[in-house]
Amino acid sequence: MNYEEMKIKLQSRLKPSRYEHSVGVAETAVFLAERFHVDVDKARIAGLLHDCARQYSNEQLPQEASGRGIAIGPVEKEMPLLLHGYVGAQLIAEEYDVDSPEIAQAIYRHTVGGPHMTDLDKIVYFADMIEPHRNYPEVEELRRLSREASLDEMVLEGLNQSIIFVVSKGHLLHPDTIAARNDILLENSKKADLD
Ligand SMILES: [Fe+2]
Ligand SMILES: [Fe+2]
After folding, report:
1. How far is the CA of 189 from the centre of ligand 2 (A)?
2. What is the per-residue pLDDT across 67-124, written as a single tens digit (0 to 9) for each?
3. Among residues 46, 58, 108, 156, which one has the fewest Cβ atoms lying within 10 Å of its Cβ?
């Protein structure tokens, strides 16, 4: 399936605003991939398809996850929407002919992050936060970082903002988000030790 065919299929599955968001994430992911020398085609496809499992409702997602052998942890049980990344990581092969473990992992992790994120994981995570349709108070600062900061500085700030938001709402904080943030800090302090 080529990229145009993926777009047509995705558009038929998602509501219009979610589809426009997906195209925005794909374009933003391409911009970031070029800036940080990451595979542009993988970034484009991962960005486009990251929310493909939003074709299922929150009520359907637990069943779609269990049916694919995805374990549902306590946080996901409380917030089934989180399952759309995990289901999407499998749906890309089932429905869009995409057979790439790197793309699948980036989609798996796009909502809450994960330990030792790859550059592609980081790009998709961040593109989802700042694509042009996003509108919240901190987004302009995050967009500035996307043009000026290093990949890790940028993603660290995205994780910080996301953690602050989740805590301010009184929601559960996913352990993968903490792992993502800790690993970026730890890996950079290791690098600083080597300098
Ligand atoms: Fe998502
Ligand atoms: Fe998204």
Report:
1. 30
2. 999 999 999 999 999 999 999 999 999 999 999 999 999 999 999 999 999 999 999 9
3. 58
Cβ atoms within 10 Å of 32's Cβ, excluding its own: 26
Domains and their CATH numbers in the chain: 3-194 (1.10.3210.10)
Mean pLDDT of the chain: 97
Q: Is the pTM of the predicted complex or chain greater than 0.85?
A: yes
Q: Are the beta carbons of 82 and 75 closer than 8 angstroms?
A: yes
CB 189 within 8 A of CB 152: no
Please report the pLDDT score of residue 18 as a whole number. Answer: 98
Distance from Cα 84 to the centre of ligand 2, integer Å: 10
Please state, in angstroms and rounded to a whole number, the distance separating the CA atoms of residues 192 and 154: 17
Find how far residue 67's CA is from the centre of its chain.
22
CB-based burial label for 116 (10 Å; 0-12, 13-18, 19+): exposed
